Amino acid sequence: MNHTKTSNMSTDNRLSHQPTMRATQTDIDQAYMQIALDLAHEAALAGEVPVGAIIVKDGIIIGRGSNAPIGTHDPSAHAEIAAMRDAAQKISNYRLVDCTLYVTLEPCAMCTGAIQHARIARLVFGASDPKTGACGSVVNLMAEPKLNHHTQMSGGIMAKECGAELSQFFSARRKAIK
Fold this sequence. Notes:
This protein is of the alpha/beta class. It contains five helices and five strands.
């Protein structure tokens, strides 16, 4: 996997290659997911499980995050939480209404709850998480009818690339332990 930093961003946090009239939502989702994947790779280089997340509002990235629970000694320092904290600070509001969260791995129950509390409109994730995924793999908290907010979801965007980043990370860890 080539981890050469490809800058799809201009200095104002917009995609430098603005989608054309023919760009599909999938094209847009893949462009933003690549940015989240770059953040995941940065987390891996720091020794963290490689998960990256961004939050987009009106075509502008307003929040970025990567996993950091090991380095920060904070079990809540997941990429999604970091991106939501960043975005909330930038817009001075804990409600992230009309925002889309892109994350390389299906969110866990903690992150899914935070996504719902923040009122994120749309969640786009890469790889499914068969061990702790709370958006359909283990449980689907987004579909719980008793909850008062339901986020639109799209999963499997660049799942192969997102999964490969995780697989490479854990493979290297297993080799280092031997």
